[in-house]
C-alpha cells in the first residue's frame, strides 16, 4: 500500500472512532489569538483565556488599547501570560498598522507576524478561512513518523511531506483526527496498540509489537 492510500485508510479508520471537531470561527482575528493562547497549554485553559479576553475586549481595536496588566489577568489560565499578553498586543498593532486590522489569508503573510509560525498560520487557514492546510503539532508530527508515513525531524518538514502524500480534500480533517488519536490512543509514551484501529498500516506496530 502506497503512502497516499495509507493516509486515506488512516482517515477512514479514525473517522470510525472519533468525531470531527473542527470548530470553525469566521473571525480570523479571534482564531489567531486563540491559537497564540493555545501554545503550551491545554484546550480547556485556552478556551477559558480566550473567552475571558473577548468577553471584555471584543475586537482587535479594543484588545490593542486594553491595559496590558488587564490582558495578562484575563489570559492567565493559558499560562505564560506575560509573554502572550505582550505578543497579542504586538501582533494586534501590526495588523492594524499594516493590514487594516484584518488577518491576511495566506501562510506566507501570517508568518511575518512575530511569534506566528506555520502551525499557527495553518490553524487560521483551516479554522477561519476554511482553506486546505495541515497544522502540524506534536501529535501530528509524532504519529506521522510512528506510522511511517514520513521520516522527518521537525514539524515543518512533516507538513511538507503530508501535503505531498495526502489528498488535499483530507487536509482539514487530518489535524483534528490525529490530535484526538494522539490524545487517546497513540500516546507519546506507551501507545495503546491493543485498541488501535490502525495497526495494519503502522510501522511501529509491525516492528515492535
Explain what this protein looks like in three dimensions.
This protein is elongated. It contains twelve helices and no strands. By secondary structure, the protein is an all-alpha fold.
Radius of gyration: 18 Å
Helix content: 55-70%
Into which percentage range does the β-strand content fall? Answer: under 5%
Structural category is: mainly alpha
Count of discrete alpha- or pi-helical segments spanning 4 or more residues: 12
The count of strands amounts to: 0
Mean of residue pLDDT?
94
Q: Quick one: biggest sheet?
A: none
Low-confidence stretches: none
Order of helices and strands: HHHHHHHHHHHH
| Molecular shape | elongated
Distance between the termini: 20 Å
Can you describe this structure in just a few lines?
With 209 residues, this protein is an all-alpha fold.
SSE order and pairing:
Elements: H1 3-15, H2 28-37, H3 43-56, H4 60-65, H5 68-75, H6 81-99, H7 107-110, H8 118-127, H9 138-147, H10 155-165, H11 171-184, H12 203-208
Helix pairs in contact: 2-3, 2-8, 5-6, 9-10, 9-11
Supply database-style keywords.
209 residues; mainly alpha
Amino acid at each position: 500500500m502506497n503512502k497516499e492510500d495509507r493516509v486515506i485508510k488512516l482517515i477512514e479508520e479514525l473517522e470510525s472512532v472519533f468525531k470531527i471537531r473542527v470548530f470553525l470561527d469566521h473571525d480570523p482575528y479571534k482564531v489567531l489569538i486563540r491559537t497564540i493562547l493555545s501554545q503550551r497549554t491545554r484546550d480547556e485553559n485556552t478556551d477559558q483565556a480566550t473567552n475571558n479576553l473577548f468577553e471584555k475586549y471584543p475586537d482587535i481595536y479594543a484588545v490593542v488599547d486594553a491595559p496590558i496588566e488587564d490582558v495578562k489577568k484575563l489570559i492567565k489560565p493559558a499560562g505564560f501570560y506575560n509573554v502572550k499578553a505582550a505578543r497579542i498586543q504586538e501582533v494586534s498593532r501590526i495588523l492594524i498598522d499594516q493590514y487594516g486590522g484584518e488577518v491576511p489569508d495566506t501562510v506566507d503573510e501570517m508568518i511575518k507576524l512575530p511569534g506566528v509560525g506555520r502551525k499557527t498560520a495553518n490553524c487560521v487557514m483551516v479554522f477561519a478561512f476554511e482553506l486546505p492546510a495541515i497544522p502540524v503539532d506534536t501529535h501530528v508530527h509524532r504519529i506521522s513518523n510512528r506510522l511511517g508515513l514520513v521520516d522527518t525531524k521537525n514539524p515543518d518538514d512533516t507538513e511538507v511531506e503530508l501535503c505531498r502524500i495526502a489528498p488535499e480534500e483530507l487536509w482539514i480533517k487530518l489535524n483534528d483526527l490525529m490530535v484526538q488519536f494522539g490524545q487517546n490512543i497513540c500516546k507519546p509514551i506507551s501507545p495503546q496498540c491493543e485498541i488501535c484501529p490502525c495497526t495494519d498500516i503502522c510501522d511501529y506496530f509491525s516492528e515492535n509489537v
